[in-house]
Known about the structure:
Blueprint: E1 9-14, H1 19-29, E2 34-41, E3 55-59, E4 88-91, H2 104-124, E5 129-133, H3 145-164, E6 167-172, E7 175-177, H4 187-201, E8 209-211, H5 212-224, H6 227-234, E9 237-240, E10 243-247, H7 248-256
Parallel strand pairs: 1-2, 1-4, 2-3, 4-5, 5-6, 6-10, 7-8
Antiparallel strand pairs: 9-10
Amino acid sequence: MSTAVSASYRVLVAGSTGACGQAIVQELATAPKCREVLALCRRNVSFPRSDSSKVRLIVLEDFNDLVVEPERRRNKECPLWGLTEVDAAVCALGTTMKDAGGSQEAFRRVDHDYVCGFVKTAIGCGARRIALVSSSGASARSAFFYMRVKGETEDEVQRLCNEHGVALHVLRPAMLLTPPRTSGSRRLAENLAQRIVKTLRLSMGGSLAVSVAQVARTVRVALEEDPTTMAQAYGAQERASQTWVYPSRTIYRLGLGTA
């Protein structure tokens, strides 16, 4: 059974203000098959490098609304709740232990609860294909908290998708390389570190790091192409019925467009 897009599609994106999410919005907004990108954000933002005519912002100030009962939502008037005719969804939500203040509970709320809440909402909006940006090494059996949460999230999202007959594409990138900062006290050290990693990854085929642009291209291709073809050409792995996993090396090769 093919899950490729046969016509134009409308896609809902969460995590669209992060470096990876911005790259995904840009990639989808310039894709001929994509007719509209619905960018779920906490505040009004702009995507200057994207085709703004295709991008529509949906502001949800409190993402806790994704995981509570409808009557307890703070943003009851958010257009998200009445959204229909969504063909696909992309989740690039995620935080770090540092940004979570060192709190495992706060980290899990974002990387598990919000992600699963978004996927459930997207399916309710009609999405039949879901792309989830996870992490290399994700496993519910991992001894490391970060990887364990990522793995548990993958398992729950897969359960939700299987329950509703929705195709799932799980991307597992290694270190994410972002566009260099042009300002900020740490930009020189960060840019130097990324240049070193970029040099090393050329000889490691993406097992060490991939760029956010490569992740974005993989997301687009995963939504638009037949996953069986992706498995044969780039090494995507069929985890279960209608569930495909894209390891970091696959993202690297697919992002370069080389089989």
